[in-house]
Amino acid sequence: MSYILKNATLNDVEDIYNIMEHTWNAGTLKTDAGLEEQHRLFRLLHSQTKIRLEIMNNHLKYLLIKQENITIAFASYASTGIHTRGLKVHRMFTEPGERVSYYQKLLLDHIEKIALAHGITHLLLGKGMLGDFSMLGFEKQVSTAPGITNDELIKLL
C-alpha cells in the first residue's frame, strides 16, 4: 500500500490529536480507577488547541504519513537552537495496529533529509521516545553542550 509524507497544516490538527489519543488509549491501564486517571493525565498533557498553537507559532513542525488520505503516523520536531545546530524529534505516534518501527524509520529518514538540506549537524530524540533506535544510528548522548541533556539519543549527520 502506498503512502505520502506531508507537512501538517491546521487542517491536520484533529488527525494528529486522534492518533495521540488512540495510541494513549491503547496503552492505558484497564482498571476503573487507573483508566480515569490516565484519561485525566492525557487531557492535561495534550489538546487540539496546543497542537494548533505549535503549528501556528512555528514552535513545532509536524510530519505526517498518510495512506489513502488517512493519517496513520506523525512526528513532531524543531530546531535545537542556533548554538547546537540540530533538530530534535519531540514525538512520534503511530495508529495502534500499524507497523510502528517501519513508520518511525520513514519519519526519521525524512527528517534527516530535511536536516541535511539545511546544514544541520545532528538529530536528537527526546527522552520520552520509546523503541530501540540504535539500529537507525542513534546512541546515548553524552554532552555538556547547551540545550542537550544526557538522557536524549543523538545521531550525528
- Helix fraction by DSSP (H/I, runs of at least 4): 25-40%
Tell me the name of the CATH homologous superfamily. Answer: Gcn5-related N-acetyltransferase (GNAT)
The largest β sheet comes out as: 7 strands, mixed
Q: What spatial order of strands do you see in the largest sheet?
A: 1-2-3-4-5-7-6
State the name of the first-level CATH class: Alpha Beta
Whole-angstrom Rg: 16 Å
* Form type: globular
CATH architecture: 3-Layer(aba) Sandwich
CATH topology: Aminopeptidase
Q: Segments where pLDDT lies below 50 for 5+ residues?
A: none
The SS-based structural class is alpha+beta
Number of domains: 1
**Whole-number average pLDDT?**
84
InterPro entries: Acyl_CoA_acyltransferase
Protein name: GNAT family N-acetyltransferase
Organism: Pedobacter miscanthi
Describe the model.
- InterPro entries: Acyl_CoA_acyltransferase (IPR016181).
- This protein has 157 residues and is an alpha+beta fold.
- 35% of the residues lie in helices and 25% in strands.
- It has helices spanning 13-26, 32-45, 48-56, 100-117, and strands at residues 4-7, 61-67, 70-79, 86-94, 122-125, 139-140, 153-156.
- It is globular.
- It starts with a strand and ends with a strand.
- The model has no long low-confidence stretch (mean pLDDT 84).
